[in-house]
């Protein structure tokens, strides 16, 4: 209802529903009690509802500019009537007021007029607002082949055949894990969702990016013990769907022993969260059946993340057998099933390796009692973290590599001189003393408008990554200077059985983690010595692989993915024979767990392109770090795809399932 300021001598005119009233006129004015209030609504339809048979004809109105029409429910604004010679006409909801017209008293059709002042009541048919049963179904939007955003991609090719989806291999498992990690990195960066792993797992399942789906008893093809996962479902992407998962502190498990554990059964909680007796169903029944039949059980152990005490890391620990079980009262006072599981022999070390790495972290690099200890720090204090040397192959051999000079950086060894180079920096866009993060930062703009790293992890492999330099206003610990501050991992140089000295980490390494930069002496093609085994050459032929996420797997634009083809001004050749750092001890592998990436920043006003090594996938502690050295010899042959066939000069001993047999 609206309030109007009207002269006291002109009372308001009130009209009943669907009746006609004329403007104030001496010859046509109905006597109205000035003390009468607004007409009250009966118990009909709610205020604002429409007539069950709305009029199909338009209401006729006078064209006199001094006449007004007010239809309640269609005009909620307060009207200013100070300039009108007549007071406004007021009507309650569903009442129409038209100017008086002698020739058209029945301007509304008879069948549209209400028989009385009471509104019509709705029957007991469909609920108010429901559509007619004969309403045509809305047609789906036709598929537009030019549409870039993909929510579901039925034509997506997972590049995994049905055969290997059932039974995988080492290379395929490595590929699926790498693709899965890429999607998790991207989802965690752009959406900050808590259920990143669950979302990625659902995408992979729906689009068929899986392997080892076949239900089996015993080992899983391509899955060695010791592989770690962020969550249990990470492992399920490779077929670990029937494993027993144990956690630290969540259940009453006894998991401190390396070769056996006591596992607490499933259940024991009501829907309202109250404890109750565990029942012989589901997992408990399956473990008892495995014990009776002598079947092997795959086990995943959970430990606290060494880098974050609030998180847990889950480790595949290989095959166990259930030797016996019993029922006892738990801490809640209710019955719990207990299963004693013993690890099978002749398996690669899994959980035991992680526990050994924990002990090494506690004792430090100068543990003289450690088996095969040779020296405490090969960098002689130049690195922020010491790099010990161990020889567990021959404990009596205390010799260590002294045929080179240790350097922590190549800044003065491989600088690239570019004529007429214009120095760039973020002095004008970033505030001094603050880490870069503003999208307008010139260094961020050079990287495509986004920081290349998130939480010290490389997000995407790119043709070139541009970092801040000495000319920038940001501090030395800027997020965009990740590779310029030396080692951040506890590494060690160790003696391998067949490949000389190697490099490994005491810590678990996440995919995309910075490991080290390549340090050495820049060489020309004519300066390379024939017997130099420490040459890094960007012109070699490397096995192609995809490390970045696939847009189709996250429902994004398929045409704007980040290129992974390196963009260099010229080939880079570096020798670590005379000068080097820990990178000179990384051996070759045809199934590498480390990759290299060119990174550019300025030094003394000139661009410096460094070769930097990042983790290609998750790497368990004390696992040897290896990258692909590439191949350089053209055999003159052509493969099935029409590409040239290359081979290397040296025999490969990496031991992977699909080893090429040679490298360099």
Automatic annotation (TrEMBL):
Q: Name one GO biological process term.
A: methylation
Q: Which residues form the SET domain?
A: 489-630
The segment(s) forming the Pre-SET domain are: 422-486
Entries under Pfam families matching the protein: Pre-SET, SAD_SRA, SET
Q: Where is the composition biased (Basic residues)?
A: 40-56, 122-142
Localization per Swiss-Prot or TrEMBL: Chromosome, Centromere; Nucleus
GO cellular component terms given for this protein = chromosome, centromeric region; nucleus
Q: Report keywords, A-Z.
A: Chromosome, Methyltransferase, Nucleus, S-adenosyl-L-methionine, Transferase
**Record-given protein name:** (rape) hypothetical protein
Locate the Post-SET domain: which residues? 648-664
Compositional bias of kind Basic and acidic residues:
57-66
Q: Where is the composition biased (Low complexity)?
A: 11-24
GO MF, one term, reads: histone methyltransferase activity
Native species: Brassica napus
Record domain YDG: where: 197-343
